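User: quick one
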Amino acid sequence: MITETHIVQFDSIALDCGSKLAPVDVAYETYGELNARKNNAVLVLHAFSGDAHAAGTDQSTGAIGWWDSMIGPGKGFDTDKYFVISSNILGGCRGTSGPGSINPETGCPYAMSFPPVTIPDMVRLQKMLTEHLGIERLLAVSGGSMGAMQALQWALAYPDAVAASIPIAGTARHSPQQIAFNEVGRQAIMADLDWNEGDYYGKRPPARGLAVARMVGHITYMSDESMREKFGRRLRDQDQFEVESYLRYRGSQFVDRFDANSYLYITKAMDYFDLTAGRPSLSAAFDGVKSRFLVISFSSDWLYPSYQSLDIVRALRGRNCDVAYCDLPSTYGHDAFLVHVSDQAELVRGFLASTFRERASSEQAVRGRS
Amino acid sequence: MITETHIVQFDSIALDCGSKLAPVDVAYETYGELNARKNNAVLVLHAFSGDAHAAGTDQSTGAIGWWDSMIGPGKGFDTDKYFVISSNILGGCRGTSGPGSINPETGCPYAMSFPPVTIPDMVRLQKMLTEHLGIERLLAVSGGSMGAMQALQWALAYPDAVAASIPIAGTARHSPQQIAFNEVGRQAIMADLDWNEGDYYGKRPPARGLAVARMVGHITYMSDESMREKFGRRLRDQDQFEVESYLRYRGSQFVDRFDANSYLYITKAMDYFDLTAGRPSLSAAFDGVKSRFLVISFSSDWLYPSYQSLDIVRALRGRNCDVAYCDLPSTYGHDAFLVHVSDQAELVRGFLASTFRERASSEQAVRGRS
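Assistant: Done. Structure below.
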């Protein structure tokens, strides 16, 4: 499957902070075919550092998509049956407007003058994209980690536009520990003199700080057990353990593909996301929700622990929502949703098929009546 | 209890790396009285960032010792009964020789020319200190975290010089996850341009890097649950969560009392400590050990998880050593050994008392025979 990233530009988007961003670009890819009834579209939602290239092989770089194990012919998101859409989030740095984009008023990158963005803002832009693609109602939205937050927000904000939501390894709001790890990353970036208050475009980026931030991230994505299996106490050379060399490599590699200011903006959006804010309970957030849910967590995920998924499930059940939940056994930690996908794919496949059948039969009933 | 830190200087110490450090200073404090038979001495061993000031109120600064909850009249280490010694570790920055000390050959701080130090080196210097204080055999050695590593090393290296060892919340060797967190701290320091290859004495120290390193540390010292209890998602102000403000404060405060190069040296000593190295098993490490053991871990400690203490207990039992083990229930994470001490104090009190009784009666038997 050879793929290509497209960019669509919209005139403007209204943001939660009260400002308007104009114009706004969205980078996206699609896989499979939209059927005539336009009822087989699935939107996948990437995690913190992902991009629009979710599946297949990029035609110019040869890079494999970040969820290629889950998306394709016969896979969990079966592109023989479904039309899969993936887009880069607002505030990102992989084609969609973000702090590195040019501010038309100044002709320079926004940098820290880019308006603060929220998870609801990101989802609002995705809604504009799906409408642009001619889709009124999605069969499903799904993502892991920050993608799970978006999947929840979709069901809340656009109850008539999504038949099913599949939040994986996510949460309805960050714990102080999750905020703390993000804050360490932000402080590492801002401690780098090259950060220069965010004004480094065309100059040297804060590569050392961003690499340290990424190293912290990678520790939290793995489990104690998976690190023992992968690295043990093996030495790379006399002065370096394998695990140190791995983290340094991952840190330095990240600098080539990610913008430090996007790191700041996106982690803030995650930290401020809170479905209970201004509501008496998490259950109250799901008043008016119409979609079905499949919630998935992983037993060894300590960054987004299973109890956070269970909180979501409990809240949905409190509103009598249609929710299936599975805590999958895995040693891979948070990374499991990306690397340990066989059980996950099976669950998603079955859930999508039953959602599609239900939807088709209810649409037929509506047509019968009219 | 008003206390004072003393410094003793020795001509030299031979190090595991093959070099000699000459001269070498040791900062130490003592609490309680050494009895006439000199059989009531207990050495407490500090964790990564501790110092000699373990208990009481420092006469000049008014600072309270880091284990004041455990050491004092009627406390776990009862100074009405025992003579408690605490010293700053080799490589540290609180009075004992370390990278910030003056190299007599150059008249300048050693900085990165300070020889690499190991946990056995630290313990060797402590042995010199206890001999200097006229103590041939310690009643007990005890410490948490890195202090636990030293407590194990004491029992191995000087089987005739220690009657009991109490390693708390420790390990016989670092896991890759523990190495990884230390490596992030090191990289954060070295990413700070003010680090200047370690040559910053008399100039601006790498304060931003060291603060980031400390922030990571503090996350690992607490548990997910204790952070939720302490901070929740409360905001300090519109742009800052309580947990962020706490971590920033702790980070910036650390810079005033800790030397970044000591951070590098001490974390390396921890990472390279491995009682299984060159041995067929951990049990084999305990061949020839003569002391009793009380091993303590805490249920919510994810930095030094209970399974690491259990590994030690199993290995000791494999050599038929006298070992008691307790996994104490606590929500405080790794910090529990410092802050959640009532059960711990009770265990230590009973264990020390029985060790003292046994020792006194065996000494009496020896005297009876002679």
